Amino acid sequence: MSRPHIPVLLDEVIAALDPQPGDVVVDATFGAGGYSRAILDAGATVHAFDRDPDAIVSGQENFPETGENPPRLVLHQRRFSEMVNALAQVGVARVDGVVMDIGVSSMQLDQAGRGFAFSAEGPLDMRMSQAGESAADFLNAAREEDIANVLYRYGEERQSRRVARAIVAARPLGTTGELARVVRKALGYHHGAPKDPATRTFQAVRIHVNAELDELEAGLRAAEALLREGGRLAVVTFHSLEDRIVKHFLREAAAAHPGTSRHLPAAKAGPPPAFARVSKTIRPTEAEIARNPRARSATLRSAVRTAAPVREAA
User: CA–CA distance from 180 to each of 89, 110, 118, 145, 147 (Å)?
Assistant: First the structure.
């Protein structure tokens, strides 16, 4: 039985975005529309992105705002890295807010047929868009070295070479259960251990198949290009790799001109800061974690767009 979808850090995200009647806000990761619902209820118009066709169909069925004239919810079945071009095509050049909830959605995790989790047997798929190379395609064809690199880079799996060797020896793999059993055997997993070692492998393969970290970096750059002066960015991440990208992006984007010293040659002036009022790290309360255990690893970072032009290297 699937769990009800509960938006993570919803109150904190809405406080960071501060949507007002008449605002235009991008929900870059629509999913079940939890953030979009709250933003619409505040009176704003939402342009929502999701590469998963199931999410788009669900939004069309469950959100009457898609049928308003003009619609207050516009759904885009596209990657959020494409938001600048997608909005230009419908005449939107600037927006008042962008929210991004990075990673796999609850609905995707809870559907065994999507192959994102090993809690139930399903095809080894993991594709958010339901198109292109699947997890099975990658694991059954890639070189052992390439698999090991993916596991180390995206899953931070210290024994990546051992796991990759076991995967290659067990090919072909076709289901989530088969992959989980191979990983557990390779790492000496014992039932009842606090964390299933297959978790790191599943995370790594999913990130690779969906190019999630590249998509995040491109999405942050797109948000910088779209946000008007005073526009707000809010990003929720669920593991250190994602959070590190957001943290570094905001740190660089909010950096002021380099300082100078009378004892040193004059430093070359850098670009003016593109973001200000970068928030401290915001994490869920114990009460929220009790209501929604999946919120445990969530981190929210937010910032406000300045009047500075888009940075060339951003």
Answer: 43, 17, 6, 19, 15
User: Which of 257, 250, 244 minimizes the C-alpha distance to 224?
Assistant: 250
Over the Cα atoms of the chain, what is R_g?
21
pTM of the predicted protein model: 0.91
CA distance linking residue 64 with residue 73, whole number of Å: 8
Residue-range domains of the chain with CATH: 10-105+212-305 (3.40.50.150), 107-210 (1.10.150.170)
Which spans in the chain are helix H?
Answer: 10-17, 34-41, 53-62, 83-89, 106-110, 135-141, 144-155, 160-170, 176-187, 198-210, 212-226, 240-253, 286-291
Task: Give tens-digit pLDDT for 200-249.
Answer: 999 999 999 999 999 999 999 999 999 999 999 999 999 999 999 999 99
